[in-house]
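User: Second chain of the day. Same drill as before.
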Amino acid sequence: MSKKQFKTESKKLLDLMIHSIYTHREIFLRELISNASDAIDKRYYAAMQRGETGVDKSQFEIRLEPNKAERTLSIIDNGCGMSASELEQNLGTIAKSGTQAFRAEHENAEDIDIIGKFGVGFYAAFMVAKKVTVYSHKEGEEAAVWESEGEDGYTVKPASYEPIGTKIVLTLKDDGEEESYGEFLEAFRLESLVKKYSDYVRYPIRMQVERSRKKKDSDEYETFVEDRTLNSQVPLWRKNRNEISKEEYARFYRDAFHAYEDPASTLHINTEGMLSYTALLFIPKNAPFDFNTKEYKRGLKLYANGVMIMEHCEELLPEYFNFVQGLVDSPDLSLNISRELLQHDRQLSAIANNLKKKILSELLRMQREDREAYNEFYKAFGRTLKFGVYDKFGANKDFLKDTLMFYSRKEEKPITLKEYVDAMPEAQKAIYYAAGDTLAQVKKLPQAERVADMGYDILCLTEDVDEFALRILESYQEKPFKSVSDPDLDLNTDEEKKAMEQRAEEAKPLLARIKAALGDSVRDVKLTDRLKNTAAFLSGGEGMSVEMFKVLRSMPNGASLPMTFTLELNPDHPVYAKLKDLDDETLKEYAKLLLAQAKLVAGLPLDDPAAFAEAVLKLM
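Assistant: Same format as last time:
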């Protein structure tokens, strides 16, 4: 029989298929196995339509046969098979989908989970094969063989192929310097690809595999051939939740995601309706070793009817939930022609939106009902949630605010914002916090003394993102956040305010002398009534606290940020009383010492540590 030519458009599409559409050439096996699974579905469905209830579904299978000697890989199924005319229609015309035609012929065929859609997956075979031979036998028709070496055309002729079904024989390309096609003849490679992409195809995928074992009554080993089923077939997530034990979920999580411990929590979601999907999500206890590196890949595994489409679908998870691991399986997703990438549409957005709500709900449930587990989780991923609050100018702050926890100075443990507000005295007007490098440092901040003396709790912030997150939140349940270093804490009575104003007025000449002595190294010098046992401390200005300044200064190009703060003095401290009687030169030395000690308490670097040490020794 003479060779038939692909149509001009088909030639172009075939070239595109081979060189452009698929990113990874290993995808060819997924596509051919999916086609085989579809063919079996069609045969079984057609038998049911004819009333053949005695069909034994357990007899259906897909078989892989690598042959290193002939450099061929065969994919064999006992599905519906194709006649000569169907081979020509389905394989001779690229993008002609036999599955679409099957659905058109059988009006109820939408009820079965057939994977194929575009009619192009078969041609992925040409990425690895220099010749593709397809033997097929449809029940009641003569067997036929379709053969092609690519763009130069194809032939279709009768064949002596007896089994009902299809056998695709790939004659692999020769190995080059940079590419090895022989890898697809190795049993371990084929096993790994089946496990990765087709583990949950509902029919067994079998292959004969060589193994070794000890001979009976001997220390010698012998080689034997085992007919092995390579796929699991039934996905765990497609079982009913009440049929799956906690141990089964944990084992699946450890195996599928290479985890060394059980998850903190598991979500098994099954949604049906306008958009149907199943999701199996895991919230880890601890961060993986590469979580904070560029190598970490977020996103859920994406399956279409049990066939893996993407290993890391980032679109299904917001950045602030990047720690969640799991998968989504849906028959309704709009995939692109290669089934490697998703088309961004409302279906995907709807699933992602629903998943983030489910994850939030589960985190809050853990927080209420299993605080110990939530505390462990929060140690690992609390920083990610705080960045989620701060990111995108606080777009997600209201969604995430109840997940946050901060260490309570009064309770001496992490608490939620709601717990803080619920415990506030009636007279308390704000949520107070103090920021520092360590918990020990925060607890000793002198500017927190007045707030603590009034019986108000203080949230201790020790991570660089903490204060940024609270500033973005602005308030919680209409209670504003206030740093204990804020210039106006509004803690005084009217009488106390008047008394302080009077003292400040009287101190103006002295404060002006100190400001003159310190020059541009401080923004201002003023009195404060929030200190008890400390002579002075530094406060920020123009919306920037000392801690925020330290964070920004540590960033690239942050060194140029001017370091100017307000030096606040305690008028009740003995040192302040002594300042009044000093001459200008001595006052200048004392002022520099007070500024230096205030910087040290705030965790700021000294401009000249040697000069500070010399001044202390001189004073001693």
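Residues 95-100, 109-118, 336-342 have pLDDT under 50 and may be disordered.

User: Great, on to the next one.
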